[in-house]
Amino acid sequence: MSKLMNVSSSPHVRSKLTTRHVMCDVILALLPATVMGVYHFGFSALVTILVSIAAAVLTEFLFDKATGKENTITDCSAIVTGLLLALCLPNGVPLYIPILGSLFAILFTKCCFGGLGHNFMNPALSGRCFLLISFASVMSTYTVDGVSSATPLADLAAGNSVSLMQTFLGLNNGVIGCSAAGLLLGGIYLLIVGGITWEIPVSVLVSFTAFIALFGGHGFDVQYLLLQLAGGGIVMGAFFMATDPVTCPLASGGQLIYGVALGILAAVFRVFGTSADSVSYAIIICNMFVPLIDEISIPKPFGYRKRKEGGKKIPTAAIALCVITLVAGVALSGVYKMTEGKIAEQQLAAKAASYQEVCPDAVEFTYDDALTAKVDALNGEVYGTDFGKAYINEVIVGKDASGNVTGYVISASSGDGMEGEITMSVGMAADGTVTGISFTVLNETAGLGSLVGEDAFKSQFDGVKADKFTLFKSGGASAPGEINGVSGATISSSAVVNAVNAAVDFFENDIQQGGN
To answer: In the record, which positions carry FMN phosphoryl threonine (predicted)?
Structure first.
């Protein structure tokens, strides 16, 4: 009897690989980017990282204590969440930012859904998205040595030159973990030790690059494509966020589908969107589709049969959610229909007020058929090639009581604003002097980008005659035509200057030279 074999229940496969071991590998892989971030941004970056990690670990510890669960902080997953979140934050943010972000990531995305292995989206990314939505101005302020400046991608979008090597090493402005070199080194380490597989990183980077090349407006410009890869967090997303084993597909085929979808979605947001972050939102959205991807990509076991009787039933909760959504949609549509006329009246009144503000000597405003035809000929497309995503919307002629032309009002827009489209009325005197600008659409970040609507910024255009206005990001503008940008809001400032320059160019080429 002593020689009888004792057969235990499944599973029978045993491995020395533990959650703690996997998480320690991720921490080691993140060290190069962490070191580069602290080296470049200094002690303040280190403080942000330590506070973020401490907040994540403490939140999980207190939750376990309060609910009577086994202490799980020793698996190091909370450390990984806190570290990843910190590396996604701008340098110099107030310390309540990493604390609140870690609290949200651990408590609401992880613990409330059952702990590690049960979260439906990446905790660190959920914390980052929460902060982006709740504290947009703080999360879009990037500083080095206390000086605010734009990120490499923002400079690239504004038409400025950007150093590829500095961007790759993470020596420009951006989030703390912006070193693509450090992230790539860590990603390769994870591939070597088996922490991740190649399917997701490769499919994300290839699909992202292909979409940018086809629809980014620069073709297969190698320098431009490499800058897009080196900046904006796509490398961190591809190697460290999208590969989270809990929230990514299980089968290799599903991982390829997931990676391609994620890369394309991130590129769509990068090219056509106005959000401060494209990769984070793309990953979160794709996390929602992982169950569906698993459903179609995991091979069916041999001999598996589908149930014939009735098939799968739609969950009651899904039906209720659809009904609620339908009712809410109908209610919102009804409210919109009831207020549509009033909204249109208010918009017309706002436009009329802006016309009067930038062309004060006029007593009436009319349309000129020839000028309207020239605007219509633009077909609503981007105006020129030197003004970013600038558009000319309409031209209005200002006249005095005797019917004489006192000036022109050109409605111009820019799609390069931080929070979306910026639309303004640009007043032009007959000799080409800008008589003022007035915004009709300005949704930039409160307290930061919205400052372009203040007189301190707008008045720099008043009474200036220039073929082209030039933006100074760090002050120092002194001559007419030189514009001091709003500190920490380079994107908004650049969008306004580009729109004004488009209006000036249209005036010179289509109004003055057109003989109207």
So the answer is: 151, 490
Per DSSP bridges, beta strands 147-148 and 364-366 are unpaired
CA 370 – CA 358 distance, rounded (Å): 22
Mapping DSSP to helix (H, G, I), strand (E, B) and coil, where does residue 97 land? helix
Would you state the structure tokens that stand for residue 166, as one six-digit string?
A: 């500095």
Integer Cα distance of 168 and 110 in angstroms: 32
Angle at 180 between CA 175 and CA 184, to 5 degrees: 135
Rg of the chain, C-alpha, whole Å: 28
472 contacts 485 by C-beta, under 8 angstroms: yes
Beta bridge partners of 223: none
Write the pLDDT tens digit of every residue in 356-378. Answer: 888 988 888 899 889 999 998 88
The set of residues, in sequence order, having a beta carbon less than 8 Å from that of 10 and lying 6+ positions away, is: none
In a domain, 330, yes or no: no
147: β partners: 144
Q: Is residue 332 part of a domain?
A: no
| Cα dihedral: 475, 477, 478, 482 (round 10) | -160
**Token pair belonging to 288:** 């929602």
Residue where the block lists tokens 């993470």: 170
pLDDT of residue 503: 93
Number of domains within the chain: 2
Give CA–CA dist 364/298, Å, rounded.
69
Any residues with CB less than 8 A from the CB of 471 and at least 6 apart, and which? Answer: 158, 483, 485, 490, 493, 494, 497
Which H/E stretch holds residue 339? helix 316-358
**Whether 268 and 354 share a structural domain:** no
Q: Which of 102-111, 143-152, 204-213 has the lowest mean pLDDT?
A: 143-152
Full domain range(s) for residue 223: 19-296
Give dist(CA 335, CA 329) in Å, integer.
10
Tokens 């984070």 correspond to 280
Put residue 433 in one of left, alpha, beta given phi > 0 → left and psi -120 to 50 → alpha. beta
CA–CA distance, 490 with 474 (Å, rounded to integer): 9
Half-sphere exposure of 26 (CA within 13 A, CB side): 25
- On whether the CB atoms of residues 283 and 125 are closer than 8 A, the answer is yes
Dist CA 141 CA 384 (whole Å): 30
